[in-house]
Amino acid sequence: ASPDGARLWVLGAGGVVSVHDAALRRLGSWTAAGLVDPTGISVVGRDVWVSDAGRDRVLVFADAVPRLAGTQAATRAFALAAANGQARDLATDGRLVWVVDGGRRVFVYRAATGVAVGSWALARANRAPTGITIEPATTGRGSWVGDAGARKVFAYGQGRLARSGRGAATTSFLLAQELAD
After folding, report:
1. 180 phi, psi to nearest 5 deg
2. Which stretch of DSSP H or E encloses residue 177?
3. Contact, 180 vs 151, CB < 8 A?
4. Strands 87-92, 57-61: pairing kind
5. Residue 66: exposed, middle, or buried by beta-carbon count in 10 A (0-12, 13-18, 19+)?
6. Which segments of the chain are extended strands (E)?
7. Would you state the pLDDT for residue 1?
């Protein structure tokens, strides 16, 4: 979602990106070209970032935030680390990129270069990670990881700062039934 919550981008099968307003009304959709198995989407500034488990890459679609129709090719991409072979989702602040992996790790990359700067293991209870988001840099250091198996979101108070070791989930909460299904 945009920082102000006015827009929401949803990544669907075949790389279709649906754009919605704050009331969840669909404003339009466009196709992110060249994706094999898209698994996550994040927006920062005017750019849309997508993780693709089928290509083991993160792709950047520059200036795609205002797009509501058509097709756009990625303007750049970087390969994921060899151990990051099960990308489930990503989050970015434009400086760093966090990719949560089905192997229960969060990998951290430099956004400008795609260079891996570390990875950390999720808490043992966070067994089936499916999504990640981060706190804004101006308000916190944490990250949240959704878990499809536990139907919970796990909060990691230092998740933005971690580069190694095992993350300590500071809290967790259950997803509403309709969100978990």
Report:
1. -75, -25
2. helix 177-180
3. yes
4. unpaired
5. exposed
6. 7-11, 16-21, 26-32, 38-44, 47-52, 57-61, 71-72, 76-79, 87-92, 96-101, 105-110, 116-121, 129-134, 143-147, 152-156, 169-174
7. 86
pTM: 0.93
- CA–CA gap between residue 74 and residue 32 (Å, rounded): 7
Give Cα 109 distance to the centre of its chain: 12
Helix/strand/coil for 166 = strand
CB 149, CB 128: distance < 8 Å: yes
Contacts of residue 173, Cβ cutoff 8 Å, sequence gap at least 6:
152, 153, 155
> Closest Cα partner for 111 from 168, 51, 23?
51
State whether residue 29 is helix, strand or coil: strand
Angle formed at CA 149 by CA 140 and CA 88, multiple of 5 degrees: 60
Q: Are 58 and 66 in contact (CB under 8 A)?
A: no
Q: For 109-124, what is each residue's pLDDT tens digit?
A: 999 999 999 999 999 9
pLDDT at 3: 81
pLDDT-flagged residues of the chain (< 70):
137-138, 177-181
